[in-house]
Design brief:
Layout (H helix, E strand, L loop, with lengths): L16 H4 L9 H15 L3 H14 L4 H13 L3 H14 L4 H18 L2 H17 L4 H13 L8 H14 L1 H13 L3 H18 L5 H13 L2 H14 L5 H13 L3 H14 L9 H14 L3 H14 L4 H9 L3
Helix pairs in contact: 2-3, 2-4, 3-4, 4-5, 4-6, 5-6, 6-7, 7-8, 8-9, 8-10, 9-10, 10-11, 12-13, 12-14, 13-14, 14-15, 14-16, 15-16, 16-17, 17-18
Length: about 325
Amino acid sequence: MSTPVAHICAVVLCLAVSAATAAPQATSAPQATSAVERARRQFEAGQYEESARTLESAVSESPRDDAAYDGLGRARFELHNYAGAIDAFKHAAELRSQNSEYHRWLGRAYGEQADREHSFSLARHVRDQFEEAVRLDPGNIAARRDLLEFYLEAPRILGGGRDKAWSQAAAIAAIDPVAGHLARAACWARQDKGEGIAGAAREYKAMFDAKPRQIEPYFEAAAYYEKQKDAAGLRSAVEGAETVAPSAPELAYFRGVLDVIAGRKSEDAAASLKMYLSAVPPRSDRPSHASAHEWLGRLYESLGRRAEAGAEYRNALALDPRRESARQSLRRLGQ
């Protein structure tokens, strides 16, 4: 089962290794803690292979350092080495079995591997780990959102169900009203098209009206309106994000997408998307580089620059071979 990892900028996603290293664990030897801190800096710079190597060395020297295993899992996750991520998160969860986040991330890694292998048995592990994460910390909104997404995506035979998803949305709303609007919007988005679009729009408007002081809610709304190709909604999300953190790196991406959807400022759109590609390391909680290339392709195609459009669609497919929309665009161009 696919989790929301690479699909949206979720409101409460942790900043990967930084969350794991925010407070050194009592089990960490001083040298291991130093290695974890170095790995965190490498991770934030997008140097995921280097971060993984640093942490592989750390866990070999300090095999009871749960923070190092957690960081290793997150680095491997970004490298799409989901089997390796599962192994690392398992070690972390075994060392600190009451840590909700370790179980949540183990569930996310299982989700990606299950999606890759089309495995029902792995999908059951996804549900088990998300449910355990919520049981350990009922206030963990990120875990509840991941569980909600699982319930929306999974068939009944694997424990899915929209009623269960709505129940999670209600629990999230009781903890945090803004997160509740986002959770209900996610549920509405899976309903029948007309009713679902209207319901999601109501929830996102309520979120905008609440004027959250964190940027993630605006980015989650932006990702939804990008998918809908709704320029007005996307503009509201971008403008809201700009009031909170105008220099956030993801804004370059969403500004570029907005200009493409709105059919204006083609030079600005290209510049924004290229800036995003060159300046922002790829990460699962950010818009993908494959998506940025595909939007550049759409821009060039709209301008009649077919060769450049084809090159961008091929770039998107090179980064994400399963990106069917880019493949269809190439066929449309006869390339």
